[in-house]
Amino acid sequence: MSSIETARGETAFDYDIVVVGGGPAGCAAGIFTARADLDTVIFDRGRSSIQRCAYLENYLGFPAGIDIETLYELMHDHAEEAGCEIVPDLVESIERRDDADGFLVHTQDGDPVTARCVVAATRYDGEYMRGLDDDTAMFETHEHDGEEHEHFDKQYAESDGSTPVDGLFIASPYGETGYQALMAAGRGAQVGITVIEAVRRAEGYPEPVANYYDWMRMDTELDDEWSDRDRWREYFDDRLPADHDLGAERLATIREQEIDRRFAMYLSDDEIDRRSERGQQQLLEHIDDELILAAAREIDAEQRSNGT
């Protein structure tokens, strides 16, 4: 069996997912895979191309822009909160394991680790992937100043990040999207979902029910019909292809896991409030203390002037 064709638990790997690169693309991919309960590590050598930016003014959600150091800290905190492990090391090479099941990932400073899947999310040349496929397919040759140079082919991956190498996905370099941080993050999210759906198929989810989305909803949207597990079972079974080859026990397990996941997406008002407060508290950790104190003094002065 190949890395994608092997269901979780059947083969021991150090990680389900190794992400190479801790910039916007890598962190976005890792957040999605970790939230889908895939054991994810992000190797980040600390030299993401975003750090060449003097100041970021077009990243959604920061009206006055954001400095790169703070954004980098926020991205990594988010990835760790989702369940990713972040390792400050450089991936030097990736190879198939001897049994062709999964990958062996070699780093500069640490011991090799094994992984079911690898997400490449670095803008540097992709040399660490050399040998995983026919190099004439993965790399292209350019002539510059009379000399030939090889570069990773940015069109090597499909639009969803999948590649001819089973278990290898490309979030970056890819086309021209990586030149804008916000576009790179979107690309990473897309590839993260591609990985999750590939794993779900490997675990027996038939194609119509393998699709995945990560979206929290208000529990008030659950009416009497959809608050009933039997209604979800009916919905799941209606989407199954007639020719699926799942045994009754495996089908029941997958069905109940998916229903549990669906119900976990619905949040009560109290839970929404709790998560909102916690989210803002975490943002405060990245704001300069002096700015927080100055804002507190302004609020206090305003309240005093209003007699409150």
Automatic annotation (TrEMBL):
It holds the Pfam family Pyr_redox_2. Residues 15-85 form the FAD/NAD(P)-binding domain. The keyword Flavoprotein applies. Keywords: Flavoprotein, Oxidoreductase. Gene3D superfamilies: FAD/NAD(P)-binding domain. It comes from the Archaea. One of its GO terms (molecular function) is oxidoreductase activity. PANTHER family: THIOREDOXIN REDUCTASE 1-RELATED-RELATED. This is Thioredoxin reductase-like protein.
